[in-house]
Amino acid sequence: MQPANRYYKCSKLSEVKFRYLLRLFALDLTASDAARLTGLSTRAVNALYLRLRHRFLVWNPVPAELAGAIELDESYFGPRRVRGKRGRGASGKTIVFGLFKRGGQVYTEIVPDCSKKTLQAIIRGKINVSAMVNTDGWRGYDGLVDVGFDRHFRVRHGRDEFVQGASHINGIESFWSFAKARLQQFKGVPKHTFLLHLKESEFRFNHRYENLYKLLLKLLRQQPL
């Protein structure tokens, strides 16, 4: 009788095989590649991957009263833009709003639009008014000073401004590049699982300097699947 799997309760998967599969997941291999290497079915690997991705909804902390230097930006995920559809809110895209604390972590939310009302509701709920807020020139950020964010600095990309002293949004833009590059391997992510993939990308980015396999083992030992 094989010993119980400490990381995946009520599973027929041995702990040795589970750890191997978790190592492949940490390396960001697709389910089909992991299935080929482990001898498991793609369906079984996909089911486990889905369970793991649901955990990132819990493991990514929701910030409150962020202070220091914060970068804000929005990005669009989905199919390539349709000809004739321009600007923020182009057809078929999922809009994601991101907050990046310099020297810290990124936090993302899927939003319905990039209006001033939508963005500033998140900003006022997540960021302390003492923070140094960095944005681009989008009109959704107009009026932040009027609601107490006296240290609001902007780089206007339309005027070829990208860095003005300490004012830039390079950190959050590096996350967008990271997330989009890793999502390309899936050749399209269904809308109903996009949030899971987004939060996985967020977790991977926030822990990019750590041994992800060892970190996942530690978290799953504390709270098994």
UniProtKB/TrEMBL annotation:
Span of domain ISXO2-like transposase: 65-206
InterPro entries tied to this protein: IS1016-like_transposase, Tnp_ISXO2-like
Pfam families named in the record: DDE_Tnp_IS1595
Signal peptide as annotated in the record: none
Protein name as it appears in the record: Transposase-like protein
PANTHER family given in the database record: DDE_TNP_IS1595 DOMAIN-CONTAINING PROTEIN, SI:DKEY-17M8.2
Source species: Hymenobacter caeli
